[in-house]
Specification:
single chain; about 130 residues; mainly beta; twelve-stranded antiparallel barrel
């Protein structure tokens, strides 16, 4: 309980921005995903389940970076270095350690400073939200 409380106090919501720095979403420390109007659109649970605001399963991202849809079909992977690949192992882009998100042409498509790479990849490349 102390760890969860400490995390919630020390780790406030992180903002996801597009390449023009406009706010696209926020991810709260408990995994709640809010759109730019601050409405809850999804939640990423501690077990990796991604659920919409009605608690319907949208997909899952496990601890090794595998991304699956709600039917458990493999969609892709986020590698430990932030590279993102689809189910055919094609390179989609990368989430840099500093939160900069780049497409396969190395163009900046957004920013997710402080957001876990896996969550940023799900947001930008797999469009669960």
């Amino acid at each position: 309980m102390m760890v969860a409380l400490f995390f919630a106090v020390v780790c406030p919501a992180q903002t996801i921005r597009n390449s023009n720095q406009s706010v696209m979403a926020r991810i709260d420390s408990d995994g709640t995903v809010r759109n730019s109007n601050n409405s809850v659109v999804a939640r990423i649970n501690s077990n990796g389940d991604i659920r919409d605001s009605n608690n319907r399963l949208l997909g899952k991202i496990n601890s090794n970076g595998d991304i699956r849809n709600n039917n458990n079909s493999y969609l892709g992977k986020v590698e430990s270095n932030g590279s993102v690949r689809n189910s055919n192992n094609s390179y989609l882009g990368k989430v840099d350690a500093n939160g900069t998100v780049r497409d396969s042409n190395n163009s900046v498509i957004g920013y997710a400073k402080g957001v876990p790479m896996r969550y940023a990849a799900v947001f930008f490349f797999f469009h669960f939200f």
